[in-house]
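Usage

Read records sequentially. Each one opens with the input sequence:
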Amino acid sequence: MNSVSSRRGANSLSMLITLLLLAAAGFSFIQGARDHAPPLIGLAVLLVIAAILVAKSLMMARQWERAIVLRLGKLQAVRGPGLFLIVPFIDEVSVWVDQRIQTTEFNAEQALSKDTVPVDVDAVIFWQIHDPERAALEIADYRSAIERVAQTSLREMVGSSLLSTLLADRKKGDEVLLGEIGRKTSEWGVTAISVEIRDISVPPSLQDAMSREAQAQREAAARLHLGQAEQEVAKRFVEAAEIYAQSPAALQLRAMNIIYETTKERGATILIPSAMVDSMNPAALLAGSLAVQPGAPAAGPEPAPKGPAPQCDARGGRRARTDTN
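and closes with the structure output:
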């Protein structure tokens, strides 16, 4: 339904009353003509006149409607909602105003941004009439005016903004449009409730260029992150090397752990030369690990055997001990 209407059909209540009066008038006329009773014919004429007056004077406005009543061309009152009466042939309802929230779609085709990029922007505005008198009397067609004002404000906003700003911060653009449109429409009795930018499109050729630029930027950022990661890894390797330099046993344990993890995960068989095993010195590592365990006895020299020491002959051989007794 249109927000402004200069003509409205009769409401259901006035139509019902009019039909009843016309039916009564018809019945009176028939009775008067049959009985040759002029009073009944006169009553029928009065009922017809009353029916016409009721149809012209009894008005009804819905809950969301307001009626602008003019008397002899001048503003008489703003009526509604509900039933109200006007003086037939003197008063008239010139405009019916809808006070519900309305929506208007508008766009800016091939508008140049601040960096001379042609863009197409689609938006929608939600508005409501807060002053029916001003909306009806101070502007001829406020719906068309709102659309033109919104489109002009959108083009001004696009021309003063960079394309990157329009794409990255739509909420800010919505706020700018709302303030600009609301400032202009408030003079007409119209309140701009909210503005939402729905779509921003650029030419296909520019989309390809922007895609390549974004891809190059992401690749450069990935290379920077990779370099930073290499620096962190190098620092950790330097710290590990210092730790292993201070503790060779830790390096040997790490080597053995790497061999174990390799055979565990891949299920492979690794042949280790005996020279490599000797270089790892597993016995010394085992002794060191046992020595650091809590409660393990400290390693020391073997106790000397009881009794006299064995004697050796001149050839260096061991000679059995003889008992003198």
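Summary fields computed downstream for this record:
- The two ends are 139 Å apart (CA to CA).
- Residues 1-6, 296-325 have pLDDT under 50 and may be disordered.
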